[in-house]
Amino acid sequence: xxxxxxxxxxxxxxxxxxxxxxxxxxxxxxxxxxxxxxxxxxxxxxxxxxxxxxxxxxxxxxxxxxxxxxxxxxxxxxxxxxxxxxxxxxxxxxxxxxxxxxxxxxxxxxxxxxxxxxxxxxxxxxxxxxxxxxxxxxxxxxxxxxxxxxxxxxxxxxxxxxxxxxxxxxxxxxxxxxxxxxxxxxxxxxxxxxxxxxxxxxxxxxxxxxxxxxxxxxxxxxxxxxxxxxxxxxxxxxxxxxxxxxxxxxxxxxxxxxxxxxxxxxxxxxxxxxxxxxxxxxxxxxxxxxxxxxxxxxxxxxxxxxxxxxxxxxxxxxxxxxxxxx
Length: 326
Prior knowledge:
The chain is an alpha/beta fold. It contains eleven helices and 14 strands.
């Protein structure tokens, strides 16, 4: 495989020649990350409560723009998270965010003065920041982590948040882990509240589940966690391109060398361990938006599509859902 070396202010990146056009913005190649957890403490240099290096979020963002990302949607999972996410969006006109409550944090509704008060606070945040808020979420169901929040509480406040989609005419940014029957049931039951569609992000379910979700008018969000097994790869390869979106779900969900998808990765980045942090380098084990090009490369290989053309089509999907009015 022939490679091209691109030198940026953030280090050297090895690119296959066919990806250089996408990286440098020729042939119209653009990418958007629809799901980046930029409020996570890792971007402040904090890992499991321990400070390992200085805050470097601005460097992460600079790398993203150099790697040809045109927009990033910051995923927010609570009221406080949404407020912090909005502060980060002020750093660039390319940054946007979601507002909502993650299923594992839905106990916050009960801990507030009242569930209605919590919902009203989310409503106020959206109302006062409509130029930056592009979706309701992250909301949904998570049966893998019921120790954080019971199934009953998750379902109750998932349904409550769906009304925000109708009120603001915003799409949904959705989470579903081992909960497809209940998740799909709630979406069907509340179809009248969902007029702007949405995306089920970080999808790792079956093809049948994906087909049901798509039939309801939703998109499927793909990241490294969607590509961890051979079964995952087979499922993703059969999804229609016009219903796919790309994300990193950073700082998690990187494509690891142990994943079967790694064999399709062509673009490689320099990184250092967090304990040996060097300004301007990626941190090993901490994903970031720049690596979204690797998700595109895997998908292009699975679909046997030109990565630049595929990237442009998925870019348009993102515009259609999140940015038609922006």
